[in-house]
Amino acid sequence: MKAFLTSHRGLTRSVLLVLAAGTSGAMAADPVVYSEIIAPIFEEKCAACHGAEKQKGKFRMDDYELLVKGGKEGEGLVHGKSAESNIVIRIDLPMDDDEHMPPEDKKQLEPHEVRLIKWWIDSGASKDAKLASLNPGDDINAALSKIVPADARKKQEEASAGEAKEAASKRESLKGEVARLRKEFPAALNFESQSTGGVVFTAASLRKEFGDDDLAKLAPVMPGMVSLDLSACKVTDKGAAMLKDAAELKILRLSETGVTDAAVGVIATLPKLESLNLYGTQVTNAGILKLAGRANLKRLYLWQTKVDAAGIQALKAKLPGCEIVMGM
In 3D, which of 216, 153, 218 has the Cα closest to residue 182? Predict the structure, then answer.
């Protein structure tokens, strides 16, 4: 691999790292373009209709010779001429055209995949040529860098499936409590969406009628809370103490409440917090510095607090990626 990095300077380092990972987990550093780059694209996007089990239009794309031979519509490709190749003509048709490939209801080719297919055909559509011998330009290197190796793609799909299963499990575990609490707080509490287990709550219609004791009633759903708006409510540090269980919380609005630096100490333990509004509260320079370890924090609203320019500067030094808003 080291020798390849030295001798093939036309390929970017990012491309080499992707290709070294391989579509099967063990691709050679200088891969055969057809079998290790193009064929996997056809396998994922085309073989369901043009493979061993099904041959739409009597055309198979899972074998090089059969791909070139084509089907009822003639040759599958013309060596060196992508624009005259049947597979490219079909790919380039409008999505709503009945002859577009893949069909509209199937997983479509990505732009970088289309670019690689055309480049391979224009380069001669060789079955055996290796990548370096085809002298890929910058645009092809860019397209190659977007290839996700099969093993990595499988892990991504498994992770997504696992996340979906976990979300469904969380939703199921909270469904009863959400239904019960919605009777007490109509229109204030709900799931984030129909497919997630995240819970959102806004006290916008309750305001001064909502205090610490009311917040305590949300304890059963606090572990699933992702967004909590308590603006202008009668919530104090006592009520804010229960936020320690809101490990999924991303958005928290406590503007014009009775919270102080003590509440910030609890808030600083929330691992996923991205947005925090403390406008019109009694927090100080010392309090906001407790947030210094919250690298995920992207926005912090602090106008009309006891925080001054020195406090802002000190926190910005700790959280350079956080936007601190001090109002007009």
Answer: 218
Specify whether 91 is located in the same domain as 168: no
Q: pLDDT of 17-33, one tens digit each?
A: 444 444 444 445 788 99
pLDDT of residue 164: 74
For residues 143 and 16, state if they share a domain: yes
> What's the pTM value of the predicted model, to 2 decimals?
0.56
Give all strands of the β-sheet with 323-325 in edge-to-edge order: 189-191, 199-202, 225-229, 251-253, 275-277, 299-301, 323-325
Report the domain count for the chain: 2
pLDDT digits (tens, 9 = 90+) for 205-239: 898 899 999 999 999 999 999 999 999 999 999 99
Is the Cβ–Cβ distance between 51 and 62 less than 8 Å?
Answer: yes
Considering the domain architecture, whether residues 12 and 143 belong to the same structural domain is answered as yes
Residue with tokens 């007009």: 328
Q: Are residues 116 and 181 in the same domain?
A: no
Span 308-325, pLDDT tens digits: 999 999 999 999 999 999
Domain span at residue 244 reads: 164-325
